[in-house]
Amino acid sequence: MSLFVSSQILALGAIFLATLLLPKFLRWRARMAKLNAIPTVGNSGIFSSYISAYRFKDHALEILQEGYEKYPGRAFKVPLPDGWQVIVSGKAMVDDIRKANDQELSFPKAINKVMQTDYTLGRPARADPYHIDVVRTPLTRNLGARFEDLRDEIKAAFADEIPAKESEWMKVPMLYTVMNIVSRTSNRYFVGSPLCRDPDYMKLNIEFTIDAFNGAKTLQRYPGFLKPLARQFLTNVPACVARATKHLKPMIEERLRKEEEYGTTDWPGKPNDLISWLLDEANTEDRRKDIVYNIVSRILVVNFAAIHTTSVTFTNSLYHLAAHPDILEPLREEVKTCVEEHGWTKAGMGQMRKLDSFMKETQRLVGVGGLAMTRMAMRDFTFSDGTVVPAGTIVSTASYSLHHDANLYQEPESLNAFRFSDMRAKEGEGYKHQMVAQDPSYALFGSGGRHMCPGRFFAVNELKALLGHVLLTYDIKFENNTGVPPPHWDGASVSPNRTALVMFKKRAV
């Protein structure tokens, strides 16, 4: 081959590569120009930013707090292993996120990236999330009618998991005991007894919560075409789905047989539970395809959300009860009075203002992470202050810093158990400061907007019933009167101390 021909081939190859790569490079440069206009906490160089990204795993709280204090009411960005994340604060910017639609700032897209939902929680649940409507409507509305079942399972679960005696103190490993109790209680409502008490089904739901988080971290390291293989061979998610199917398939198929037998979805003796509510919502031909997997995957998703957040909140509350014996009696007296007047009912839970305040306050102090209201910019998004976030960027609010802001909360580092119930006592404030309400200074459930957690009403009522039972049934404390054990941070995620023991003793009735 002549030198001339070789040169032509090289020139054509260079032109081809330039044609292919130049537009991508120009788009990348335009995107980076917008990101570079947002101040950085940490290193911002092409290579040095990876040092800061690595540091984020163990020092996320410090990094987020630095940005919150250095850029109040503004946006800043932090480098993560898979790209830049923009963090915003201040009422105006939080309102911008709350008001944005999914074509501008998408919650589902952000969760899909963070949790790799197509491979961990199931593609059908992401593509057609009708389980959210089920949680928002029938699951929430039936709480009053099914509260007796919740109460029955709470009594049974505590008797099995914490069989404390009046005569001696019992040491209880808190977090994992709580997860067992929450799994049983939630699933009594979701799928009923005896399945909610099945040891493998209980273990499965707890493990799936952990495996989904771990699986997401694994899958984030692989390109799209390798993710199905990585899911199959490097995560425990497929095994969890198979185990859940073994337990739930007979129940689902029995319901389908009843529908066919009676020619209606409203057949005699139909259970009032999550399986039925999901089948009712699966009312189109497309939704009835591969119906067993569709229902199983959604039950796992609902369990994933219910067990994680409720277990974290319940454990945090128990740690603070054990560390602050002075608040036991006021809470105990309120629970006793409400139960005597209304019984163990949804209405009774609604009257427990001090307990609601205590739960909200413990989550303000600790919470479930340093970030909230996570969204993905679907196109370049301009905040009200002129900050432009380029398409494809993940945006969040600095929730932990918000909850510890001295401009919003007096003595923010201290537990004030009745902070919010005192606020509710003021005229016209009765609803505003309860745990489930929209509150721009409180981000546990999302600070408002249409993506505020739809399961919060169920979760808060369940938590009140759980804590109320503890208050009336047990005395609790830490051995040697130690304080609240330090939580475990992993990046921007936080969980209660995993090894702490709490002392329980049954109260004399």
Automatic annotation (TrEMBL):
Family that this chain belongs to: Belongs to the cytochrome P450 family.
Cofactor(s) of this protein: heme
Organism: Collybiopsis luxurians FD-317 M1
UniProt protein name: Cytochrome P450
Pfam families in UniProt: p450
TM region positions: 6-26
Coiled-coil segments: none
Molecular function (Gene Ontology), one example: oxidoreductase activity, acting on paired donors, with incorporation or reduction of molecular oxygen
List of residues binding heme: 453
Keywords: Heme, Iron, Membrane, Metal-binding, Monooxygenase, Oxidoreductase, Transmembrane, Transmembrane helix
Highest taxon of source: Eukaryota
